[in-house]
Write a structure and sequence with these properties.
The complex is a heterodimer of chains A (about 280) and B (about 270). Chain A is α/β, with parallel strands linked by helices. Chain A has a single domain, classed as Rossmann fold. In chain A, about 35% of the residues lie in helices and about 20% in strands. Chain A has a 6-stranded mixed beta sheet, sandwiched between helices. Chain A has a 4-stranded antiparallel beta sheet with strand order 2-1-4-5, with helices on one face. The longest helix of chain A is centred in the middle third of the chain and has 18 residues, at about 175-190. Chain B has a 6-stranded mixed beta sheet, sandwiched between helices. In chain B, helix 3 (about 95-105) crosses helix 4 (about 110-125) and helix 3 (about 95-105) runs parallel beside helix 5 (about 140-150). The longest helix of chain B has 16 residues, at about 170-185. The termini of chain B are far apart. Classes of the chains: A alpha/beta (about 280), B alpha/beta (about 270). The interface between A and B is medium-sized, with 19 and 20 residues.
């Protein structure tokens, strides 16, 4: 299984080391974990995503996937099979005339035989709940369904790690919830590693760990609860807090609770002890 | 000014109604929210309200005068429309000149227009040291308020705002709506259009919900959000999750602040 290790990574788009997009980022993503990455615009989130599968190579420092350095060209195909990257705006990534053709595109490119392709397509579409719509045109899908189709296309490649770079940014709350439910399922029951890069704070509560980037550096790194206990730091960075965290802060101010909750399961026990 | 919409329909093409048979009225000094998703007809309604479109059927009244009897060129000054992302239309070399542009267009002299602009900038809470800066040097929230000042400076009786809070953080939204609250107290009629149940529940006194061109619900905010067919706001979603765990809370809950108050009441009992 693929651990991803970033060791002291720097990245700048130009040669001038003045404008560093990432500056000394070290991070270990253990196989089977669900990490969310948040940070203000321009904090380096997207750049970090692109380092993870060798789309970008760090200006200095090392990125290793399962012990394979992205710096070695010969490792790249293997790394890309392990780590799949999914971007914003699913419309740009739809290539097939039907839902199943679209999903088959990746495995076909891998040169797999017909039976294996069919199996993978069915398997991926059922995981994202689109098997019934397999014969339909992708253009008839809702925003949430298109995003799920994007995930199916990536799953058909059978990666170990899914990196989602603002992949839910264009979706309404309903569509985002659909995608989050699938990610949680892939993480909990299919053993996938999920790296979710997002500017929707409420999405981070579906994972187990949050990394906060600011100006290319890691500001906070810890469990969901640990990070949200430091909500002052997040507010200073101009980051919004998930609604349960906002509510916890209001209740804390009123002296009702003395910890931060991030969902109903963590809030209600705090309240019940007072009633 | 009171605004009254009477059985209004609008079709872009024959036979297809983008808006059908919508009636409501907004009393002077009210903050009124129009909620609906993309394609619900809210943009069409907005353009009817400020006279950019004329209803295919039905009538719109400003106090007791029908729109068709009001001189067409004066209507946009009486019912001011603030477009979505209005800051993208800032263009003058300084904030003050930008805000003075509208009143100058309305026929005010240069000195008067500057005075109108200054007053509007005070209303939206933009400090004096920003007035002579280029609008491009303002923060996102400040730009939005400068653009709003541009419409306020024309002194309209009714303000119609399209997604005025879109893209702003909670603090930015609160600032914009505290400006609108101030204008309401001065007797302005405020109508804002939003796709966000959270913003409508938080800031509107009365609400109209549009769905596929038809009126789905209309009334006092709490009454509208009690209806099961109206999309839920986030605070109410959280409240319902807490209720599921056996803690009894009233319904509907409109804001997180209200939710925390209600929780305190349950605990104090």
């Amino acid at each position: 299984m693929a651990d991803i290790v970033l060791d002291n990574c720097f990245y700048s788009y130009s040669n001038s080391l003045e404008e560093k997009v990432l500056s000394g980022v070290s991070l270990r993503v253990e196989a089977g974990s669900f990490i969310s990455v948040i940070g203000p615009n321009g904090s380096g989130k997207s750049t970090l995503a692109k380092l993870l599968n060798g789309l970008y190579i760090p200006s200095s420092g090392i990125v290793e996937v399962d012990g394979l350095s992205t710096r070695e060209k010969k490792n790249i195909p293997q790394i890309r099979r392990k780590v799949a990257l999914l971007f914003q705006n699913p419309d740009n990534q739809i290539v097939g005339d039907t839902v199943e053709d679209d999903t088959a595109f990746g495995p076909e490119n891998l040169g797999l035989d017909r039976d294996e392709i069919t199996k993978r397509v069915e398997d991926s579409l059922s995981k994202v709940g689109l098997l019934e719509k397999r014969k339909m045109s992708p253009n008839t899908l809702s925003g949430g369904e298109k995003a799920r189709l994007g995930i199916a296309g990536v799953l058909a490649l059978n990666p170990e790690v899914l990196v989602l770079d603002e992949a839910t940014a264009m979706l309404d709350p309903e569509g985002r919830k659909e995608v989050m439910a699938i990610l949680q399922d892939l993480w909990k029951y299919q053993g996938k590693t999920i790296i979710l890069i997002t500017h929707h704070p409420e999405e981070t509560i579906y994972g187990e760990r949050i990394v906060v980037l600011d100006k290319g550096e890691i500001k906070l790194d810890g469990s969901v609860a640990e990070v949200y206990r430091k909500s002052e730091t997040l507010k200073k960075l101009g980051l919004e807090l998930p609604p349960y965290v906002e509510l916890s802060l209001l209740l804390k101010e009123k002296g009702v609770i003395d910890d931060i909750a991030f969902d109903s399961s963590s809030l209600c026990p705090l309240l019940e002890s007072k009633i | 000014m009171k605004l009254r919409v009477e059985s209004v329909s609008y079709s872009y093409r024959k036979g297809v109604e983008a808006l059908s048979d919508v009636s409501f009225s907004v009393e002077q000094g009210t903050i009124y929210g129009i909620m609906g998703e993309t394609g619900s007809g809210k943009s069409t309604l907005l353009k009817l309200l400020n006279g950019l479109y004329t209803p295919t059927k039905g009538k719109i009244f400003l106090d007791d005068r029908e729109y068709s009897s009001i001189t067409k060129s004066t209507l946009p000054f009486r019912v001011g429309l603030v477009f979505q992302y209005p800051e993208s239309q800032l263009f003058e070399e300084s904030v003050i000149l930008d805000v003075a542009f509208g009143p100058k267009n309305k026929g005010r002299s240069k000195e008067e227009a500057i005075m109108d602009a200054e007053k509007a900038l005070v209303t939206v809470g933009l400090k004096k040291d920003k007035w002579n800066k280029s609008p491009f040097n303002l923060s996102g929230g400040e730009k939005r308020r400068a653009a709003l000042a541009g419409v306020i400076a024309m002194n309209p009786e009714v303000l119609v705002l399209d997604e005025i809070a879109a893209g702003l953080d909670k603090e930015g939204k609160d600032r914009i709506f505290s400006v609108l609250e101030k204008l309401k107290k001065e007797g302005k009629t405020i109508i804002f259009v939003s796709h966000s149940p959270d913003d409508v529940a938080r800031y509107a006194e009365r609400v109209l919900v549009l769905n596929k061109g038809k009126l789905k619900a209309e009334g006092e905010v709490r009454e509208v959000f009690s209806s099961p067919s109206v999309p839920k706001n986030q605070s109410e979603v959280i409240a319902s999750e807490i209720r599921e765990k056996g803690i009894n809370l009233p319904s509907p809950i409109l804001t997180l602040e209200e939710l925390s108050d209600e929780i305190v009441k349950v605990i104090d009992k």
